[in-house]
Each structure stands twice: as C-alpha cells, then as structure tokens.
C-alpha cells in the first residue's frame, strides 16, 4: 500500500478497515499520518481501542507506515 499518498489518519484507518477508530485518534491529537508515523509507540488501550485483533492490525499497519515514511519522507508543501 502506498502510504505516502495519504495524509490523514482517517484515510489510513479507512484503508485498513479500521475507520471506526478515526475519532479516537483525532481525540488523542492525531489527525495527520506523519504525526502517527513519528510516534515510537501509541497507547491504543488509553485511546479506547480494546479489541486485541484490531490493535494488532493497527500496529502492523503502523509499522508499514513508518517504513514507508523512513524511505520516502513527506515534505510539507
């Protein structure tokens, strides 16, 4: 998946079928994908994400996002 094409956390979550958590990320202060990619570890429990399968899916995707941003950092326009 090409994460550098996405800019918002909502778009990213929708792309991995986890869009129901968009408001939780927004409430935690994460609206842009590059903000999430800069984090070492997100406390998904604290954000209100309780299902282990969903947390695993989000963490796996987040690792991919970080790899993509390390390879091809997004420059502000």
Q: Helix coverage percent of residues?
A: 40-55%
Coarse morphology? globular
Largest sheet: none
Task: Report Rg.
Answer: 12 Å
Uncertain spans: none
Order of H and E elements: HHHHH
Overall pLDDT level: 87
Ends apart, CA distance between termini: 22 Å
Helix tally?
5
What would you say this structure looks like, in words?
- With 77 residues, the chain is mostly helical.
- It contains five helices and no strands.
- It has helices spanning 9-15, 22-27, 33-37, 44-47, 52-71.
- The protein is globular, with a radius of gyration of 12 Å.
- The model has no long low-confidence stretch (mean pLDDT 87).
Can you lay out the helices and strands and say which pair or pack?
Blueprint: H1 9-15, H2 22-27, H3 33-37, H4 44-47, H5 52-71
Summarize the structure.
This protein is mainly α. Helices cover 55% and strands 0% of the residues.
Key traits:
single chain, mainly alpha
């Amino acid at each position: 998946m090409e994460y550098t094409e996405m800019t918002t956390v909502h778009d990213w979550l929708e792309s991995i079928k986890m869009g129901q958590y968009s408001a939780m990320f927004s409430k935690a202060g994460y609206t842009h994908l590059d903000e999430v990619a800069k984090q070492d570890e997100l406390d998904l429990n604290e954000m209100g994400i309780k299902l282990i399968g969903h947390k695993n899916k989000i963490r796996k995707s987040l690792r991919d996002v970080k790899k993509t941003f390390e390879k091809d950092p997004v420059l502000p326009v």
